[in-house]
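haha ok so turns out i had the wrong file open the whole time. this is the CORRECT one, sorry everyone. sequence first:
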Amino acid sequence: MSQWKILSDEVRPQVTGCGLPWLTKTPATEAEQAARLLLSEDKRNPWKLPTSSNDSAGITAMGHFARDLWSLCNAAEALATLYPSPDTIHAP
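then structure:
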């Protein structure tokens, strides 16, 4: 969560303050929510489920984990499209 908070609270205002584009609302919102929930201790984290949990709870938790991870990857891909790495720009 702390890395997303840095991107959202520190980097985004500087980028948009220079008139440059940022993530559209959907990937930004989904990424922020995913960062907050990804490793939360409620029933969304397959590695922190109570030992009394059944297989169905584990499958559900893994589905939440995969969705959260997908949202973060989607936001990272959108940012990489807006701001490609210098290595990509200068590749032969």
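The chain has a mean pLDDT of 86.
again sry for the mixup
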